[in-house]
């Protein structure tokens, strides 16, 4: 189990850029508490003046008359109250702004780091879990910095200042007030150790709950079409029950803290009240000093009961901090590369040399695959589902790192190119089109922020999307909904092609770009692709062989290996796997087309 202090040290190390703000916030918290503790001393001095008058403590400083002494105490009280208020305003503002700054930085850094991780990381974790880290966990940290950090500092200040005052004023009985404190601290540490695992479980359960909600909202159409609303409510109830139960177990323990600590604190308070009073009656302790001791005892011990809530905030924050820091510590597998690459410099020759690759905990998907894509030409890659076609694309974009072999672009190892430059040189139109919630114009221009409306319209025209766009209520300014849910599959596909056209990459990848559309839409897409693939290196991955029949070279994959290669006509004449696939799709009895 991770030690409770480890996440705090990680957080302090992360926050070193805000060191100056932290120092100021800590200073204001300490000064506020010091001035907050001054009134009991003023009360003790006032009682001393009333009882001893010209023989009081203040008279030793040359202030003889009772009126002057009380006036001095009144002015001192006004100054102390003003300073206490000023420093309270200062620490409130500093801590809250610091919480916002750290929360902001942590969320951006966590998200930026998350984007750099390879796809395998996302495939092994749910979106809801990651959302819980980026949102709920970081918000827990904000709550602690808003309140908890200041409370811890002020409790420590109270212990040091009042404990020191006790030993100065009445060392004989000061120990009576101090005795309960070790028990309070030991009790706090014990409760903290018990709460650590319980709050870690709470964070785990809320992740599961967020994951369930995220998945269900994304799949609402499937839920409705299968009429499984009641079943999903039941599943959500189970996850919510688990979250509630884990919270209740933590609450049961944290709620017991204050009542138990109160018993210990009362023992110290009553002891000072009794034995200090006896000392005052015997004349061993001044009445003013006794009055101050009683007030100070209350100020020393009763605030310790607030440790329960502070401890609760601390444990929740540290459980969340642990998860955020684990995310930031996740190593980035892909080497970023160091060679710059501008799209205008790319010739477009691609060579795969003996590439082998296996997804984590699975058997090899690609086995010594070798193929070549000459610059400016179009190749087709076909094969059954699971043969490794789309995996080649993921490796080309370096979404995964291959296990062995080399991939060369214009004779240079892909791993040597700066990762961002490489991906800017490649345009991908996938079968799984992702559109963002926004306008048609924003989605076409995604990745090409400087594009003009004229350029966007030209890209839409080439993608044969202009006609349906003009029929939308607001044309290019129409909001298409999350994931483009207001559009048909073919319309989404054409917007994705328009986006790739606007990017104008030297290398274009079409990964099953027509697999989910009807024949008429496919024909329109193929017409647009014929225009944009000219003089551009193009890799077309297709299940429908009609999409690749005019490619310069076709590779047939099976079981992760290249089984056949050649033109459409030569592969039909070969009467092999490609010819068999062609006959199945066209219904022909022979291999002649």
Gyration radius over CA: 36 Å
CATH structural fold name of the largest domain? ABC transporter transmembrane region fold
Give the full name of the CATH homologous superfamily of the largest domain.
ABC transporter type 1, transmembrane domain
How many H/I helices?
22
Strand order in the sheet with the most strands: 6-7-8-3-9-10
Instruction: Please report the distance between the alpha carbons of the first and last residues.
Output: 67 Å
Poorly predicted residue ranges: 589-593
Q: What's the overall average pLDDT, rounded?
A: 81
Choose one word for the global shape: elongated
The largest sheet, given as strand count, sense and whether it forms a barrel, is:
6 strands, mixed
Q: What's the CATH C level of the largest domain?
A: Mainly Alpha
* Class by alpha and beta content: alpha/beta
Strand content: 5-15%
Count all strands and give the number.
10
CATH-derived architecture of the largest domain: Up-down Bundle
Question: What's the structural domain tally?
Answer: 2
> Helical proportion?
55-70%
């Amino acid at each position: 189990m991770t030690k409770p202090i480890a996440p705090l040290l990680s957080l302090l190390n992360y926050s070193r850029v805000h060191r100056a703000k932290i120092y100021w916030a800590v200073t204001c918290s300490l000064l506020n508490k010091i001035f907050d503790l001054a009134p009991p001393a003023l009360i003790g001095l006032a009682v001393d003046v009333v009882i001893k008058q010209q023989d009081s403590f203040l008279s030793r400083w040359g202030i003889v008359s009772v009126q002057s002494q009380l006036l001095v105490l009144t002015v001192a009280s006004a100054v102390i109250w003003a300073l206490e208020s000023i420093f309270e305003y200062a620490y409130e503002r500093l801590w809250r702004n610091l919480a916002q700054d750290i929360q902001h930085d942590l969320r951006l850094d966590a998200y930026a780091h998350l984007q750099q991780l390879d796809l395998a990381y996302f495939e092994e974790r749910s979106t809801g879990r990651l959302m819980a880290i980026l949102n709920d966990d970081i918000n827990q940290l904000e709550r602690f910095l808003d309140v908890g950090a200041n409370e811890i500092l002020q409790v420590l200040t109270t212990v040091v200042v009042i404990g020191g005052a006790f030993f100065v004023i009445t060392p004989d009985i000061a120990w009576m007030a101090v005795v309960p404190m070790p028990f309070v601290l030991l009790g706090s540490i014990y409760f903290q150790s018990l709460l650590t695992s319980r709050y870690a479980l709470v964070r785990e359960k809320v992740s599961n709950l967020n994951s369930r909600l995220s998945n269900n909202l994304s799949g609402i159409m499937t839920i409705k079409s299968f009429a499984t609303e009641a079943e999903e409510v039941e599943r959500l109830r189970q996850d919510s029950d688990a979250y509630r139960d884990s919270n209740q177990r933590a609450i049961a323990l944290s709620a017991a803290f204050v009542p138990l600590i109160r018993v210990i604190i009362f023992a110290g308070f009553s002891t000072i009240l009794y034995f200090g009073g006896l000392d005052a009656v015997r004349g061993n302790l001044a009445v003013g000093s006794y009055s101050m001791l009683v007030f100070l005892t209350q100020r020393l011990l009763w605030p310790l009961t607030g440790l329960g809530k502070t401890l609760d905030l601390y444990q929740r924050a540290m459980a969340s901090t642990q998860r955020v820091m684990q995310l930031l510590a996740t190593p980035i597998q892909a080497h970023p590369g160091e060679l710059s690459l501008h799209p205008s410099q790319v010739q477009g020759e691609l060579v795969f040399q003996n590439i082998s690759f296996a997804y984590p905990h699975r058997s090899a998907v690609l086995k010594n695959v070798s193929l070549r894509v000459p610059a400016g030409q179009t190749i087709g890659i076909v094969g059954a589902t699971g043969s490794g076609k789309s995996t080649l694309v993921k490796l080309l974009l370096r979404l995964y790192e291959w296990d062995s072999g080399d991939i060369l672009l214009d004779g240079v190892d892909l791993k040597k190119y700066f990762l961002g430059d490489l991906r800017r040189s490649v345009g991908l139109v996938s079968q799984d089109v992702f559109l963002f919630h926004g306008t048609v114009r924003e989605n076409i221009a995604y990745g090409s922020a400087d594009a003009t409306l004229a350029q966007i319209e030209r890209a839409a025209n080439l993608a044969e999307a202009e006609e349906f766009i003009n029929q939308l209520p607001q044309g290019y300014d129409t909001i298409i909904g999350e994931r483009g849910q207001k559009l048909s599959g073919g319309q989404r596909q054409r917007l994705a092609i328009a986006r790739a056209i606007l990017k104008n990459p030297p290398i274009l990848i079409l990964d099953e770009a027509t697999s989910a559309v009807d024949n008429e839409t496919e024909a329109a897409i193929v017409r647009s692709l014929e225009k944009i693939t000219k003089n551009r290196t193009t890799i077309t991955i297709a299940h429908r062989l009609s999409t690749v029949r005019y490619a310069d070279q076709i590779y047939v994959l099976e079981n992760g290996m290249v089984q056949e290669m050649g033109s459409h006509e030569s592969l039909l004449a070969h009467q092999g796997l490609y010819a068999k696939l062609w006959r199945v799709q066209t219904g022909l009895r022979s291999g002649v087309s």
